[in-house]
Amino acid sequence: MHEWIIAEGIAEIIKKKNLKNVKIHIGELQGIDKEILEFSLKRMVNCRFEIVIDKALLKCNVCGKEWEPRVTGRKDEVVHFLPEAIFSIESCPNCGSKDFEIIGGRNIWIEC
Amino acid sequence: MDRMLDPREEIIRKRLGKIKKIIVLSPKGGVGKTVISCALAVSLSKIVKVGLLDLDISSPCCHIVLGISTDVFPEENKGILPVEMNNLKFMSTAFFTKNKALALRGKYKTEVFLEILSVTNWKDVDTIIIDTPPGLDDTFLNILRYLENKMFLIVSTPDNLAVMSLRRSLMLINKREILGLIENMSNKENLQDFCKKIGVRYLGKIFYFQNIHEWYGERFWKSPLVSEMENIVLKFKKDILD
């Protein structure tokens, strides 16, 4: 499962850097199941952690419109595995441009 | 102090560290990297467990050359499993974008690079051929930064513009990581002396095929181009198998 691989990567960093207390940010577009990730991580590391889901948000480079995408990272959508596929799916609801930024909900990163 | 750490870098190191990678490279477009990458992958699939990764993120075409359908979504098992055809494992952004356009600014190309390399489960593959986009942009820089255990296979036509671009790009690559050069769309052996001058191994040439596009699809696997590639592979087979 996708969550297991993500958990392995996070666990490697926690162990290598001997981290004791981390906040794990999961972008909504990644479609990671928070409970499965928590379950996986608890079996891999002995570290205090909090998982935070960052909401997906897009912003048009042409007109400045910000919007929440129609697609999310649900497992039945291509965005789940490749969030940048959203550029082939979404357009600005205001001007129709495909030149936009993902300003929220894209990445997985560890804050320590 | 807060620090941002990306777990994908660790995943890539763990998944791909031991797998040999042959990066098919040319700074100039239109020299035939995609066709050479596909022919190389097909040739090698007969002697090693090989994968082919299409990293031409915005304009993937390997699936067209090889006749692999992108209608079916790859299966999932500890990541995405590459699609397997005739002992060759294949992955491309085309599986995610289908035939829709994907226009990406630079930083998103890096995100796609990290994502597709971390999420693909290549299990049991010994060597991965990587087709790259033309130029020396984000994908090239990311390859230098994130991928270990790699060799560059340079593709060039005898055209002077391609050769001049190639000469410039060689300043950025560690010579010990260059597997050699394949001359594509050749009429005569123009590049052999050039390779001697720059200290790069000349692996051979592929002659110009007038209607190569007629071979795209399942026929490609038994094409004359693949036969020519099989002869070239004999020259560096040892580098792959060791």
Describe the structure.
The complex is a heterodimer of chains A (112) and B (242). Chain A has helices at residues 2-16, 34-44, 86-89; strands at 21-27, 48-54, 57-60, 66-67, 100-104, 108-111. In chain A, helix 1 crosses helix 2 (34-44). Chain A is built from three helices and six strands. With 112 residues, chain A is α+β, with helices and mostly antiparallel strands. Chain A has a three-stranded mixed beta sheet with strand order 2-1-6, with no helix packed on it. In chain B, strands 4-5-3-6-2-7-8-9 form an eight-stranded mixed beta sheet, with helices on both faces. Chain B is globular and about 45 Å long. Chain B has helices spanning 7-16, 33-44, 62-66, 94-97, 106-119, 138-146, 160-169, 192-198, 224-241; strands at residues 4-5, 20-25, 50-54, 83-85, 88-92, 127-131, 150-156, 178-186, 202-207. The model of chain B has no long low-confidence stretch (mean pLDDT 91). Helices cover 37% and strands 20% of the residues of chain B. Chain B has nine helices and nine strands. In chain B, helix 1 (7-16) crosses helix 5 (106-119) and helix 2 crosses helix 9 (224-241). Chain B is an alpha/beta fold and 242 residues long. The termini of chain B are far apart. Chain A binds chain B through residues 1-2, 4-6, 8-10, 12-13, 16-17, 78, 81-85, 87-89, 98-99, 102, 106-112, and chain B through 2-8, 10-11, 14, 73, 76, 78-80, 93, 95-98, 100-104, 108, 111-112, 115-116, 118-119, 121.
